[in-house]
From TrEMBL:
PANTHER family: PROTEIN PAFB, PTHR34580. It comes from Cryptosporangium minutisporangium. The lineage of its organism: Bacteria, Bacillati, Actinomycetota, Actinomycetes, Cryptosporangiales. It comes from the Bacteria. Keywords: Transcription, Transcription regulation. This is YafY family protein.
């Protein structure tokens, strides 16, 4: 491919992320001047891609919602990543009829026909060589997520029945803003019209979803991102713990793979971990599988409890030896 073609494909790939980019940012990423960028944008428009432009301060370039990149423009690595992503998605949840896992399972077997001919044999080889262990998680319906996406795009209020953690069902009327994936769960971040506050709902617990014609004005999110707000809520009943662990960050990440943890490598074999946990017993159980020395930097109560537990174990060993 010529340099112009490669650059145009690179521009299209950036715009396909759905983000709005400033002219300076796009020019910097593509290593071109503003005039060349404008020509490339015009070239994309000539190919039928609706690129929106907002001039002036705060201006941006953005691909209009609903436009799609033809499959043949996928780079080799992107096509294989798509195949692997479908495999992982298919292995998460119960793959019940109409669920995202079910759709991913069916798409996994069809994607070859949308790939360039040169990649079909490699895709078949990847499929034959990959196994993904089933991860049990609640299944979320494709129809539910699609309906929420439409409502968010059109800024329409939705109503639904929601099954809470206690098993009781309530009727909700909300302004939907974000769909969030976190720790094998899908969530909806929305403004609850009746409670006059932000709420997070497990998408798999939503039933009888109805999009209303009533429109709403988007509200500023209650945190920098929807994920940040969700994490704040999940962390509230838990205790913040800071550890220094004599192990590489990759080993610590594996031991705490299902936790929302921040890791800072201090050295090749030393890592600081910041997380929130329910109890020191839970923390000890998980760190025991890591088999590495560690120090509890905070809180003091956890450090004291662990020292007492260690002393009890030491006393038992002494009694048995005697």
């Amino acid at each position: 491919m010529s340099d112009v073609t490669q650059r145009t494909l690179a521009l299209l790939a950036l715009l396909q992320t759905g983000r709005a980019f400033s002219g300076d940012e796009l020019a910097g990423r593509l290593d071109v001047n503003p005039r060349t960028l404008r020509r490339d944008v015009d070239r994309l428009r000539g190919y039928g891609y609706p690129v929106e432009t907002q001039p002036g301060p705060g201006g941006y370039y953005r691909l209009s919602a609903g436009s799609a990149m033809p499959p043949l423009l996928l780079e080799d690595a992107e096509a294989i990543a798509t195949l692997l992503g479908l495999a992982l998605l298919a292995s998460t949840g119960m793959a019940s009829e109409g669920s995202i896992g079910d759709a991913a399972t069916r798409a996994y077997g069809k994607v070859d026909q949308y790939l360039p001919k040169r990649l079909r044999a490699r895709a078949a080889a990847v499929r034959a060589s990959v196994e993904a262990g089933q991860v049990h998680a609640p299944s979320t319906g494709v129809d539910t997520m699609s309906a929420l996406a439409d409502a968010i795009h059109r800024r329409h209020v939705v109503t639904f029945d929601y099954v809470g953690a206690s098993g009781s069902t309530t009727e909700r009327r909300v302004e939907p803003h974000r769909q969030i994936h976190h720790s094998l769960r899908w969530y909806l971040l929305a403004w609850d019209v009746d409670k006059h506050d932000w709420r997070v709902f497990r998408t798999d617990r939503i039933t009888d979803l109805q999009e209303r014609s009533q429109e709403f004005a988007p509200r500023p999110l209650p945190a920098d991102t929807g994920v940040d707000y969700l994490r704040q809520g999940l962390r509230k009943p838990r205790q913040r713990v800071v550890l220094t662990i004599d192990a590489p960050a990759i080993a610590v990440a594996d031991a705490l793979r299902y936790q929302d943890v921040e890791l800072v490598p201090l050295a090749a074999d030393r890592t600081r971990a910041v997380l929130r946990v329910d109890s020191w017993q839970w923390l000890l159980l998980n760190l025991a599988f890591l088999d590495a020395d560690f120090t509890v930097d905070e809180p003091d109560a956890f450090r004291t409890a662990l020292r007492r537990f260690g002393a009890r174990l030491g006393g038992q060993e002494t009694d048995q030896a005697g």
